[in-house]
Design brief:
Number of domains: 1
Number of strands: 8
Largest sheet: 8 strands, mixed
Radius of gyration: 18 Å
Oligomer: single chain
CATH topology: Rossmann fold
Strand order of the largest sheet: 3-2-1-4-5-8-6-7
CATH class: Alpha Beta
Shape: globular
Low-confidence stretches: 218-226, 234-245
CATH architecture: 3-Layer(aba) Sandwich
Helix content: 40-55%
């Protein structure tokens, strides 16, 4: 795991909250989570909870308060910050440090939540984690993908914008990993329910989404011309969601 990057990030900013203009994309991800979580999930495990930027967000705070929530993260600094945030907000949560490269076994829960963790891990570690993810009754996973980034940069090239590279601390999921993940869920559901009883609710539903900032910003000269509030409102209102739509980020729900 790129623990050094995140330890430094948390020490500098005391948070993993998105910065401008990334807040637009983050809003869409939070909205995706809010619309896909069950009303009464029982117990929740967030793998890679960071400083609780998801659980403590205004959109999900009330939902988390009604669950038995546990969050784990590879960064001790993140867990310390998460503990402070949970105390300030009055959230009754369990928080623990777990090195995902060395210890990949996950505690059981009714619902799994994982957002942008796997792209920070080795391929071996994330494959083992995804093999466990598919065994949770329900869950959500949000990760950037290599193919999605290629398509996005092709669209940016038509606007004469520079490509957006993977960050040095990231390794986006490729199609083979996604295919293995989805087939693992199907096989698990079949084993539990029988081939004739497996339906879309048992398997992984995939949604690709993006916000205007991905397509139109990240060019320095353009960022200076676009008002921050405009970017936020556009990202909030323009919910580009459809299978096959350009965008590097994919939401998986089951």
């Amino acid at each position: 795991m790129s623990i050094e990057y995140w330890e430094k990030r948390y020490q500098q900013t005391s948070s993993d909250d998105a910065s401008w203009p990334d807040v637009g994309a983050r809003f869409l991800e939070l909205d995706f989570i809010e619309r896909n979580v069950p009303v009464d999930p029982g117990s929740v495990l967030e793998v890679g909870c960071g400083s609780l930027s998801i659980a403590a967000s205004p959109l999900l705070r009330a939902w988390i308060a009604g669950t038995s929530y546990a969050g784990i993260d590879g960064s001790p600094v993140a867990i310390a910050l998460a503990s402070v945030r949970a105390h300030e907000l009055g959230l009754n949560v369990q928080l623990n440090v777990q090195d995902f490269e060395a210890h990949r076994e996950l505690r059981r829960a009714d619902f799994l939540l994982c957002r942008r963790l796997l792209c920070n891990l080795s391929r071996e570690a994330r494959r083992e984690l995804m093999n466990q993810f598919v065994k949770f009754p329900h869950g959500l996973m949000i990760e950037p993908t290599k193919d999605g980034l290629k398509e996005l940069n092709a669209a940016r090239a038509h606007r004469n914008l520079p490509p957006i590279p993977e960050a040095e601390h990231n390794d986006y999921l490729d199609e083979d990993e996604i295919r293995h993940f989805k087939s693992g869920r199907f096989n698990h559901a079949t084993a539990l329910n029988g081939a004739r009883q497996v339906n879309d609710q048992h398997c992984i539903r995939e949604t690709r989404f993006m916000s205007p900032y991905y397509e139109r910003t990240r060019a320095k000269e353009e960022l200076g011309k676009i008002d921050q509030q405009w970017r936020y409102e556009q990202a909030r209102l323009a919910k580009f969601e459809a299978p096959g739509l350009l965008g590097p980020v994919v939401g998986f729900a089951w």
